[in-house]
Amino acid sequence: MVTSDQRMEAPVYDPSVRLSAFEAKIEQTLLLIDIPLLILNLKERNPNYIMYTTIEDHASPAALIINPDGGTSLIVNNMELDLVRHYSQNCTIRLYGGMAEFYKRLHEALPAGEKIYGEISENLSDLDLLPRHIYSKLTDNYVIESARDILVELRSVKTEQELRFINVAVQETLDIFEQIRPLLVAGTPEAVIAHEIMTTIIRQYANISFKPIVSSGPRVINPHPVRHTGRELKNGDWLIIDFGLSINGYTSDLTRTYLIGGDFREHPFYQTYEEMYQLLITEDLTQLTPRTLALKLREIVNGKNLAGFEKHGYGHGLGVEIHDISPSISTCKSLLSEKPLRDNMVFTFEPGFYDDETLTGFRIENDFLIEKGKAVRLGK
Predict the structure, then answer these.
(1) What digits encode the pLDDT tens for the residues 78-115?
(2) What are the structural domains, with CATH classification, of the chain?
(3) Using an 8 Å Cβ cutoff, are 216 and 231 in contact?
(4) Dihedral of the CA atoms 215, 220, 224, 225 (nearest 10)?
(5) Which of 1, 73, 176, 300 maximizes the CB count within 10 A of its CB?
(6) Cβ-count burial of 315 within 10 angstroms (0-12 exposed, 13-18 middle, 19+ buried)?
(7) Which residues contact residue 79 at a Cβ distance below 8 angstroms, ignoring those fewer than 6 apart?
(8) CA-wise closest residue to 189 among 224, 254, 219, 234
């Protein structure tokens, strides 16, 4: 297991490492585009922008333009040059003051009349990221085509550097689970556990990808409860802890279940999970779609008569968002559910079972990479 000291020796935050990740994502993009691609980071956090730049700290609008001939531009506010300075080796940095100058720089990089790819999607709301008023302003100068299929590919299939960031985030999350284990005894308040998780993340120079969920006793039957309370753990409680880290904008998402003062390994929920896990790691996933995988998993659940205890799907994509575009391991039909699983996709696996009568909640969540067709657990 990688410790925070070891991670600092392998400098994932080093500008040269982030530059390498940026270059790899640009290279992947150039295989997919035939006209310029425009990515706008406006007031809201744009995962597409972070996917390239690893920058989450812009306070002002920014833009990334990738041309099919390989020319790349970043447009940022004068005050935020330091955030992108290390990309100037292979990218034109265009600075602006006010918004009028922002659009002037945009038109310098993208002459009026060009056809461009933009972040619009009629069928996938997660990629429909151009606000209406910005879209209207852009269409005065450009013909915008949907970048949906391109962005689905880029968000779903990870580069080597993206996988490195995710794996470090997973490893450090696992480290913290080990560090908090002494607290998981009768008498400890949920809030104390949550506080220890958050302060440990800060000490390890990482960011929280989402606020920890620490639920115990009667609260464990809710997959997304109030994140924590002052309730003290009691012997016989089921306890679910769910949290993740963010490294350069790339996330982890792991969940562990505990039985305070006991051992849940003989419980049918755990035994069913183990059977599902074995199916996951033995299948050739590239011969399946997310939905057909979910249907195979559902067969195991049905065979154990546990379908009535499920409250969510079996997993989701993971990357610059906790619930990334693809793959979603669910029996529901969707735009992407019938597209084959592929190598270098990353997803969570989180079967969960919740018994409202006995106040039993069980969920184990790990993060997986598809490598040579097989599900490989990250952060071992």
Answers:
(1) 999 999 999 998 899 999 999 999 999 999 999 999 99
(2) 32-156 (3.40.350.10), 160-377 (3.90.230.10)
(3) yes
(4) -60
(5) 176
(6) buried
(7) 59, 60
(8) 234
